[in-house]
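name: query_chain
kind: protein
chains: 1
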Amino acid sequence: MAAASKADKKAAMDVASWMFNVVTSVGIIMVNKALMGTYGFSFATTLTALHFATTTLMTTVFRWLGYVQPSHLSMPELLKFVLFANLSIVGMNVSLMWNSVGFYQIAKLCMIPVSCLLEVMLDKVRYSRDTKLSIVVVLIGVAICTVTDVSVNAKGLLAATIAVWSTSLQQYYVHYLQRKYSLGSFNLLSHTAPVQAVTLLVLGPFMDFWLSNKRVDKFDYNGTSLFFIVLSCTIAVGTNLSQFICIGRFTAVTFQVLGHMKTILVLVLGFIFFGKEGLNLHVVLGMILAVLGMIWYGNASSKPGGKERRSYSLPIDKSQKHGSFSESVVSDEKV
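structure:
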């Protein structure tokens, strides 16, 4: 009875964590689409820097109030994570600029097999046949409803490759660091956000000028655009935290697979709020196929042997202490 209650509690927390990530991720995409599309704030890297600066401010306040206890993360590990994370941000922005939207979407889909490869190579994870097939169904479904024109060149391919590998490594590393140092999501975020904020605030204006040929300090700031910038930064705090929570509770692969649910929601909301142009039968069929694949993945990976580690042991730093905002990291042998 106690085991069933514990399992129900874990399932409820998993659902709540995922819904938190979905709501904040879809919300920030909608806000940023309005900010960049309607008001012309095309400084994506600088905006991301402001997101991490806001997150740093929040973690500092909660630490000062005593809700987050001090924790340890070695400097080499921190710098390695920040390198992957910043390469991911810059790589995705450059990939979107240098490639067609269709190839950009294909590159994003490639993150799932790359994440699987990292887990197989580094964590000795074994996937069942049904789990593999369900991932393929998700990829096909999302590709049908998102991939349109596909054109690529050498520099675009290079940017996409860097973006895919750095993003996959960054997401794998979130799970790795949480397990190795027994860090809760909030603790890990309090270590990484300040370094990312500083590096991106320095790099962002130059990167954005290179990408858009516009200077962020010359933008015509007004009440409405500032409101959307503040709103975007506020939602980003939840997005950053929920990403760490989800990857900590699940794995990078599961986060990528279920993450395409956000792609479907963004498409649906885009059709609702920004017009129904582009909505046709094959898009709807692709959405349905992707959702069915996600359901299949959840069922297949949760079965015994669906997704499990083989003879893998990670040393845990048991000296960590958790504050009120830290949550225990759940084993991901069964997703």
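note: The first strand starts at residue 125 and ends at 127.
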